[in-house]
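FORM 7B: Structural annotation worksheet

SECTION A. Query
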Amino acid sequence: MSSEKIRLDKYLWAIRIFKTRTLASAAIDDGKVKLNGVSVKASRPVSLGDRYDIKTPARKWTIEVTGLLSNRAGYEEAIKHYADLTSEEDKIVSKKMATSFQTGKRLSKTGRPTKKQRRDLNDLLNEDDAD
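SECTION B. Predicted structure
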């Protein structure tokens, strides 16, 4: 099994770091996957003992390859093929980011202005127009 060659993008997809192989390839091309601090190519063969730093939209990962997996498997099977060496800080930061995401105009879960707030805002804007 150690003589088997698996592409990096296929491996990251198989161990369920990325939802699709296309997303894995795009992240690698954008330099979000590094081997010993150096960006790598999607076609790079994965070897046992390799350590990768991976940035996904959800969180940061630091993994060590403990087994090779060429086809996508269930979560229980996939976690047997890598060791998650991610620091606790990175795990905590990602949980905070997940609870309050940016929708574009205002923070999520803050709601619309109340009637009183809207009147105050209109008064403030109308005062500027009158000057």
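SECTION C. Observations
The chain has a mean pLDDT of 82. The longest strand covers residues 60-65.

SECTION D. Sign-off
Analyst initials: ____
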